[in-house]
Write a structure and sequence with these properties.
Blueprint: E1 23-26, E2 28-29, E3 50-51, H1 54-68, E4 74-78, H2 87-100, E5 106-110, H3 121-130, E6 132-140, H4 144-149, H5 156-169, E7 172-179, H6 187-201, E8 205-210, H7 218-223, H8 232-244, E9 251-255, E10 264-268, H9 272-284
Helix pairs in contact: 1-2, 2-3, 3-5, 5-6, 6-8, 8-9
Length: about 300
C-alpha cells in the first residue's frame, strides 16, 4: 500500500495501533530527542532526525488528494514528534490536508512534552482549529527517578505541563505508560506516581504497554544496571496497583497492545472495579486466565 501512495517513506515507519486506518504523512524523519534508552523505534543506525522539506510534504498531500480523493478519512503526522515543527509550518500542512483531503475528519501526531515548551496555548488552539485533534504523548512513567534512569529527558511536571496545554487548547490527549519500566526496584513508585500524573491530567485516552527489548537490553542497562524485567505475576501486581490508584473520570483505557499478557479494556472510572477484579482473578488464578500466548506477544 505504501508504494501506491505518492509520499516518500523512510522505513521503519511507526504509528500508534489506533492509527491503523490512517494515511501516514511524514513531516519529520526520526525523533528530535532519541535518547530514551528503552526506545528501539528511531535508532541512529536507522534514521537521523531532520525536518522534511515543506514543499515536499505539501506536494505529497496534493498528489495523494488527486489520486485518492475522498477515500482518506484520517491522517497521522509522522515520525516521532511532528509538533517539534514551527506552528506556521504545521498550520500550512494542516491547511493542505483540509484543502486536498476534504474528507479527513481526524489528524493526529506523536508529541514529546519538551516540544510544547515554546508553544503557547493560543498556538495550540490555532492548530486545533486547523484540524489537529489528537496528540499521542509517551509519558512512560510519572516517577522522576524512573524517567531519569531511562534518559527520558522529561519530568512528571514537564509532562503534566504539556498535557495541560493540549487540554486547554482542545486537543485530545492519548497517554502511554510502560508497565514494568522501573523493574522490581522502582515498581511501586512507578505505579503510584504514574497514577498521580494521570489523575492530575485527566486525559481522554490512556494505554499501557509492557516494556520489551527485541534488539537486546544492553543499551538500556547501561543507564539502569540493576534493572531486570518484571515477571508475569509482577506485571499484573504493578498494573493492579496503578489502576487502583487512578481517579479518572471519563478516560478510555486500553491495555490490549501485543506486548501485554492480559487484555484490559474499559472506561475509567466507570469500569475500574471490573478491571481490578479481572486483574485480581488473574493474580490469584493465572492458570485459568485468558492470557495472550507467549508466541503472540511482541512490539
Amino acid at each position: 500500500m505504501l508504494n501506491a501512495i505518492p509520499i516518500r517513506y523512510v522505513e521503519p515507519v511507526y504509528r500508534p495501533p489506533s492509527e491503523a486506518e490512517s494515511l501516514i504523512v511524514p513531516v519529520t524523519d526520526g525523533c528530535s530527542w532519541n535518547h530514551c534508552t528503552f526506545c528501539e523505534m528511531y535508532t541512529s543506525e536507522q534514521k537521523h532526525f531532520r525536518a522534511r522539506d515543506e514543499a515536499e510534504v505539501l506536494q505529497g498531500i496534493r498528489e495523494t488528494g488527486a489520486r485518492f480523493g475522498n477515500a482518506v478519512r484520517r491522517v497521522f503526522l509522522a515520525d516521532g514528534d511532528a509538533l517539534v515543527l514551527p506552528t506556521r509550518r504545521l498550520l500550512n500542512i494542516l491547511t493542505a490536508i483540509r484543502t486536498h483531503l476534504p474528507a479527513v475528519h481526524r489528524v493526529s501526531s506523536y508529541c514529546l512534552p519538551r516540544n510544547l515548551r515554546r508553544k503557547t496555548v493560543e498556538e495550540l488552539r490555532e492548530l486545533a482549529a486547523a484540524g489537529l485533534s489528537i496528540a499521542y504523548v509517551g509519558a512512560e512513567s510519572g516517577d522522576d527517578e524512573v524517567l531519569e534512569r531511562v534518559n527520558k529527558g522529561e519530568t512528571s511536571a514537564s509532562t503534566l505541563a504539556a498535557l495541560d496545554k493540549l487540554g486547554a487548547a482542545g486537543i485530545k490527549r492519548s497517554v502511554m505508560i510502560l508497565n514494568g519500566l522501573g523493574g522490581p526496584e522502582l515498581s511501586l513508585r512507578h505505579a503510584d506516581n504514574s497514577a498521580r500524573l494521570l489523575n492530575a491530567a485527566q486525559p481522554e485516552f490512556l494505554a499501557t504497554l509492557v516494556v520489551s527489548f527485541p534488539l537486546g537490553e544492553q543499551r538500556f542497562r547501561a543507564s539502569f544496571p540493576g534493572w531486570r524485567p518484571l515477571r508475569q505475576h509482577e506485571l499484573f501486581v504493578e498494573m493492579a496497583r496503578f489502576i487502583e490508584r487512578l481517579t479518572l473520570e471519563r478516560t478510555l483505557f486500553r491495555s490490549d497492545h501485543a506486548s501485554n499478557w492480559l487484555v484490559l479494556r474499559g472506561t475509567l472510572g466507570a469500569d475500574k472495579e471490573r478491571l481490578l477484579h479481572q486483574l485480581q482473578q488473574t493474580i490469584a488464578h493465572p492458570e485459568t486466565a485468558a492470557l495472550r500466548p507467549a508466541w503472540a506477544r511482541g512490539l
